Amino acid sequence: MSAFQKETVLSVRHWTESLFSFTATRDPGFRFQNGQFAMIGLEVEGKPLMRAYSMASANHEEALEFFSIKVQDGPLTSRLQKIREGDVILVGRKATGTLITGNLIPGKRLLLLSTGTGLAPFASLIKDPDVYENYETIVLAHGCRQVSELAYGEHVVDGLRSHELFGPLIRDKLVYYPTVTREPFRNRGRITDLIASNQLFDDLGLTGLDIETDRIMLCGSPAMLEELPAMFTARGFVEGNHSQPGHFVIEKAFVER
């Protein structure tokens, strides 16, 4: 258990029957880069039951925040979804992950492409002042099946836009594009298809994908993480990592169980 820090749950909010977010205390010694993840979980029968979760909070915030799916028979999430204020969770002492700006070649436009709870690391990144210093435009795309599943992302973006410090900083730079696949909505379709057809860029009044200026981060469903990298690679984009920055990076460690 020495690899984990015990933290106290500060708040829990259930967004839908299948999605919730929660905040917890943060040990002063816990450091992370925006976009990274840590192992978090619960002590069950004297043993740690852990899964990888991206921090949805920024590294300058005092509390930690996480965004999670509920899986009724999931070993961890079946228990985690029942936490309440005052409960204790475990947080790994080390953060890691590929969704950090240092793994990208410098560019002008940053595309943050997510589905479901894959939004979490981008909720952290869009709170990072350095991101707005390094890019002229940040496009946050979030794909879900139903409109109700967009609520957390809308909450995060609306909070930033109304923030007295961040609001003016992001007003002309952050572009939010929510889309759904199973209900009527102003944006419809899978992010993969919307990128391939250029519809996403047309809807936003932006120029299409450009290897000279665009840098991309991906976090979401297995299908998206298979299809989009193949599409980008076919167009000459190179995947980046800790040892060699590239045009796009992928995170596969967010929780779906």
UniProtKB/TrEMBL annotation:
InterPro entries: Cbr1-like_FAD-bd_dom, FAD-bd_FR_type, Flavoprot_Pyr_Nucl_cyt_Rdtase, FNR_bac, FNR_nucleotide-bd, FNR_type-1, OxRdtase_FAD/NAD-bd, Riboflavin_synthase-like_b-brl
The protein's Enzyme Commission number: 1.18.1.2
Principal EC category: oxidoreductase
CDD domains: FNR1 (cd06195)
GO molecular function per UniProt: ferredoxin-NADP+ reductase activity; nucleotide binding
Keywords: FAD, Flavoprotein, NADP, Nucleotide-binding, Oxidoreductase
Secretion signal span: none
Ranges where the FAD-binding FR-type domain occurs: 2-105
Record keyword Oxidoreductase present: yes
Cofactor(s) required for function per UniProt: FAD
Family: Belongs to the ferredoxin--NADP reductase type 1 family.
Protein name: ferredoxin--NADP(+) reductase
